[in-house]
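I hope you will forgive my troubling you with a question about protein structure. The full record is reproduced below for your convenience:

——
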Amino acid sequence: MSYQSALFVYVGVKHKDHDRIKARIVAHGGKSDEIDFPDVSDTCPVQGEIVQKVVASDVLVVYVSKYITDNVCISDAVSEASKKGMKVIVMWLDEEGNESDLGRAVINHADSVMPYSEEDVEEVVENGGTVWKAADGGQFKKRDMGHHTCG
């Protein structure tokens, strides 16, 4: 199951395998959009754009590293996607980062957190499963990853 539309968000750096990830997540003929967020921690200056693009998407893919997980725009995007009931897939940019580095919105609302691997993307996108891994591929403690829709 690929998605008809995907929104990719990041702070300054796309994943090195972005094109491959996009090809696996977005259905043939589907569309994708991107937002490169400013590096801010107080108020997100692109909140309106986030809301507009989340409404037009089926899945949110967030690229994070241990240095940018507290970005307020990432938190806003993840929260908006969760309100809409969208699948939220978080991918580590590098091999540094652990559960304690994730922002509260990601911990509370992400369906999956993982480094990029073909197997994990297949599990999440094709099989509808969840993956919750540290940046180095190690397992986090087992947790309930239920996704709740508000409203």
